[in-house]
């Protein structure tokens, strides 16, 4: 298509004219983005077709990764990088006086996800394709992704996200592969010739139309598929009100639910889940049947993975198709289904475990409900045999109980594998939260510690650091991230240290410029960039960070000679629109920023910055600029975290609790290279059991705590009285569920150590380099290799040039 920059330029200019109907001079940046995006998609298309052919010919097992979220981030830059044509394109554009990065800014950031869970799915797609593994994603084509966050007077305001407004150059609509989904109606049961059959009648039908997006592997010819389903009108009955039918149908794929932990209990959410699952399973079966006739062997050729419980209805849906459509017996269908599906658990917060009221579930999905009932009855019978008379245990493990359908229980019973996302999380699942299931099915439980795509979070986000690493140890680490460890042999090299200092400084300057533009705050690039970016949640304890900054402010006011190493505290976080507490914390951060940044003396040493609308593209500017990574969740509450890994890979030092993957990071680098503090998970869980924690005692006995907690309500902030009362109440009246005050003193101590450590620049930089050198373990390539070998049983496809 184009192999050098002159060919590229010629092609680009021609295409710009034909696509936009304008000459180059008249074209806008968006015209240029559109033209380039289309060229790149075309460039991909032959590889895409070849990959599909290869999968057909190779007859290999494929994995389908079902996830209600894929937090992709912009694709142009990543695709150019993975296709190895970024340099040609960049130079060609430069000749035309166009900057590639400006064009990239025209792409809207597809935010089909809330946070960690959706971003994990996106990193997994990148690793699957790069490792030549036959694996595809299935999700919903939400018309509006996660809301755009605006801050008005310090409060979060949500605006609808509009990623499709200017079209999506990467997608290909496939109307011929549309399938029908049935909701509501009744089930007619028929018993003739000893055969029981089920017919879903009077159903409301919705059409699911797929839009396929290519997933390009790095430096390989593999192009996998991310299939996004769009809800559209199907046939409707004569009595139906067409307008309300249209409204209800389109509502299914209108919005991503902006809540990453709590379950809304909304019927629309349930509809979305079944819509995703039914369309995906139908399409998987259809493509299987094109190549093979014997569905009894499905699990030898197909693995279906459910990312958390949102797609758990994959289990009864596959049962439904095998029994009602394909004529399988229950036992035959169960054998295939339970060997096809595997499940990842992402949380132990009990309020986040999905449970659906039967009275909502049953009328909306009558046949699926019948099947879940049958699964439950057979499962309880098995339990009865194993644990005769143990009613309580059986009641506790049942899939349906007390008018609720428990999606985690369904997922465990119907899957061949259940994994947690970090060692500590998997252990808590086995030994506490899912103990009774672990005792019943010990072989099903395993751990797969999360990872991140180093191609996005290092190669794409931080080209300066990428060049430095390659300069030092060659480029093999790009394909084999574990080879980053070779950097460890160079961390004492003064030249490398100096060059790394320059890279970090450069990235801090880039971020400082953005902060100046967006927030109008001038920050000192010699100060410590201390960063906490992630969803706003009580268990993630942004409040602990805030209280520490308030404490520093108080110290500086009391003692003008009190020395601290200058710091810039940077926050980024969206709060779920209905999460009152989280929104209050956002307001608190802004009130604190106003107080700190406007104090003539305090602002010389500390600044507080809240960066609006935290999302993947902003994250790519933030991680490379960080010196300190805040990973301060209440121990046992953060299943893994992946932000922690992005910081480590970009040479920030972690301040963290012994929670999630922080623990494995510490095991990997050694305790001297990470700043840990606070209660351990065991200590937290013990407190929760014995109820002996009294936050009031810490309030009374620590003057520093009393002062900052009082300041929430005593008029210290220039806000209405009562503005932050609910936050103060959470700490005292509600006894501080997340142990903020319990960990406060320990957090102050460790932060003081951080300030002192930063003063020894060389040692600090070496420690950062050590962190980078060990970060290969946390590449999603490692994670995906483990899923492929230990759960899915899939192997790479060899490209023709590798055979
Ligand atoms: C990585 C990432 C997350 C997850 O961050 P955690 O610190 O692990 O919670 C959330 N949002 C975005 C945009 C990310 O890139």
Distance between the termini: 24 Å
The bound ligands are: pyridoxal-5'-phosphate
Please tally the β strands and state the result: 25
Helix content: 40-55%
Mean pLDDT: 96
Summarize the biggest pleated sheet. 10 strands, mixed
Rg, please? 27 Å
* Oligomer description: single chain
Total number of helices: 34
Uncertain runs are none
The secondary-structure class comes to alpha/beta
Shape: globular
Strand residue percentage: 15-25%
What are the SSEs and their pairings?
Elements: H1 5-20, H2 29-58, E1 62-66, E2 70-71, H3 76-82, H4 86-95, H5 100-104, E3 111-112, H6 116-130, E4 135-140, E5 148-152, E6 155-159, E7 172-173, E8 179-183, E9 186-192, E10 195-201, E11 204-216, E12 223-233, H7 242-251, H8 267-291, H9 298-301, E13 302-307, H10 314-325, H11 330-340, E14 341-344, E15 355-357, H12 358-364, H13 366-386, H14 391-397, E16 400-401, E17 404-406, H15 407-414, E18 418-420, H16 423-433, H17 435-440, E19 445-447, H18 454-460, H19 463-473, H20 476-479, H21 494-519, E20 528-533, H22 542-558, E21 567-572, H23 580-597, H24 602-605, E22 606-610, H25 616-622, E23 628-631, H26 643-649, E24 653-656, H27 662-669, E25 675-676, H28 681-690, H29 695-701, H30 703-711, H31 725-731, H32 740-759, H33 761-773, H34 780-792
Parallel strand pairs: 1-4, 1-13, 4-12, 13-14, 14-18, 18-19, 20-21, 20-23, 21-22, 23-24, 24-25
Antiparallel strand pairs: 2-3, 5-6, 7-11, 8-11, 9-10, 11-12, 15-17, 16-17
The structure holds pyridoxal-5'-phosphate.
């Amino acid at each position: 298509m184009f192999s050098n920059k002159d060919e590229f330029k010629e092609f680009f200019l021609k295409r710009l004219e034909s696509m936009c109907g304008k000459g180059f001079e008249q074209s806008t940046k968006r015209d240029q983005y559109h033209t380039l995006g289309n060229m790149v998609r075309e460039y991909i298309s032959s590889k895409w077709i070849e990959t599909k052919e290869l999968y057909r010919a190779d007859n290999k097992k494929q994995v389908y990764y079902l996830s209600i979220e894929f937090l992709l981030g912009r694709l142009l830059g990543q695709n150019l990088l993975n296709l190895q044509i970024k340099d040609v394109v960049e130079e060609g554009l430069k000749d035309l006086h166009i900057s590639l990065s400006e064009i990239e800014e025209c792409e809207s950031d597809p935010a089909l996800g809330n946070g960690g869970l959706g971003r994990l799915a996106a990193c997994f797609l990148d690793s699957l394709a790069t490792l030549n593994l036959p694996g595809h994603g299935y999700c919903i084509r939400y018309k509006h992704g996660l809301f755009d966050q605006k801050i008005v007077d310090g409060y979060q305001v949500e605006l609808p996200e509009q990623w499709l407004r200017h079209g999506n150059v990467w997608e290909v609509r496939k109307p011929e592969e549309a399938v029908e989904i049935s909701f509501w109606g009744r089930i007619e049961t028929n018993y003739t010739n000893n055969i029981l059959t089920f017919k879903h009648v009077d159903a409301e039908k919705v059409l699911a139309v797929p839009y396929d997006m290519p997933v390009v592997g790095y430096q390989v010819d593999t192009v996998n598929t991310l299939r996004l389903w769009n809800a559209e009108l199907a046939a409707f009955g004569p009595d139906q009100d067409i307008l309300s039918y249209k409204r209800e149908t389109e509502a299914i794929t209108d919005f991503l639910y902006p809540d990453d932990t709590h379950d809304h209990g909304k019927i629309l959410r349930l509809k979305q889940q079944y819509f995703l699952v039914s369309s995906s399973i139908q399409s998987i079966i259809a493509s299987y049947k094109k190549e093979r006739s014997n569905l009894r062997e499905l699990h030898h050729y197909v693995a279906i993975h459910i990312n958390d419980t949102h797609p758990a209805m994959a289990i009864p849906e596959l049962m439904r198709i095998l029994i009602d459509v394909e004529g399988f017996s229950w036992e035959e269908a169960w054998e295939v289904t339970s060997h096809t599906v595997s499940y990842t658990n992402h949380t132990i917060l009990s309020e986040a475990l999905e449970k659906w009221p039967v009275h909502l579930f049953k009328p909306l999905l009558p046949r699926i409900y019948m099947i879940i009932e049958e699964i439950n009855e057979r499962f309880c019978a098995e339990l009865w045999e194993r644990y005769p008379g143990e009613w309580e245990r059986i009641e506790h493990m049942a899939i349906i109980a007390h008018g609720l359908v428990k999606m985690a229980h369904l997922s465990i019973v119907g899957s061949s594998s259940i994994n947690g996302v970090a060692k500590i999380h998997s252990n808590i699942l086995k030994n506490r939260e899912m103990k009774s299931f672990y005792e019943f099915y010990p072989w099903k439980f395993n751990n797969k510690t999360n990872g991140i795509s180093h191609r996005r979070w290092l190669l794409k986000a931080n080209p300066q650091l990428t060049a430095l690493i390659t300069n030092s140890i060659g480029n093999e680490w790009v394909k084999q991230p574990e080879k980053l460890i070779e950097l460890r042999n160079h961390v004492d090299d003064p030249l490398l240290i100096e060059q790394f200092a320059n890279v970090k400084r450069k990235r801090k300057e880039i971020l400082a410029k953005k902060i100046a533009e967006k927030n109008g705050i001038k920050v000192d690039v010699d100060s410590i960039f201390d960063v906490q970016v992630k969803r706003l949640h009580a268990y993630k304890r942004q409040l602990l960070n805030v209280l520490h900054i308030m404490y520093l402010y108080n110290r500086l006011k009391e003692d003008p000679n009190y020395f601290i190493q200058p710091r810039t505290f940077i926050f980024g976080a969206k709060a779920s629109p209905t999460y009152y507490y989280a929104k209050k914390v956002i307001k608190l951060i802004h009130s604190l920023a106003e107080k700190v940044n406007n104090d003539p003396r305090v602002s010389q040493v500390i600044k507080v910055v809240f960066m609006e609308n935290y999302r993947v593209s902003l994250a790519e500017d933030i991680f490379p600029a960080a010196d300190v990574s805040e990973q301060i969740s209440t121990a046992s509450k953060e299943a893994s975290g992946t932000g922690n890994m992005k910081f480590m890979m970009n040479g920030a030092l972690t301040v963290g609790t012994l929670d999630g993957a922080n623990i494995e990071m510490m095991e990997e680098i050694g305790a001297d290279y990470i700043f840990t503090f606070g209660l351990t998970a065991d200590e937290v869980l013990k407190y929760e059991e014995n109820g002996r924690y009294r936050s009031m005692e810490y309030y009374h006995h620590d003057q520093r705590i009393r002062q900052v907690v009082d300041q929430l309500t005593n008029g210290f902030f220039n806000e209405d009285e009562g503005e932050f009362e609910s936050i103060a109440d959470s700490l005292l009246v509600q006894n501080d569920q997340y142990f903020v005050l319990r960990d406060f003193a320990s957090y102050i101590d460790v932060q003081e150590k951080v300030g002192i450590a930063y003063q020894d620049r060389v040692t600090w930089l070496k420690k950062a380099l050590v962190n980078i050198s060990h970060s290969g373990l946390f590449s999603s390539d490692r994670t995906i290799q483990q899923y492929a070998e230990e759960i899915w049983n899939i192997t790479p496809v060899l490209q023709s040039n590798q055979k």
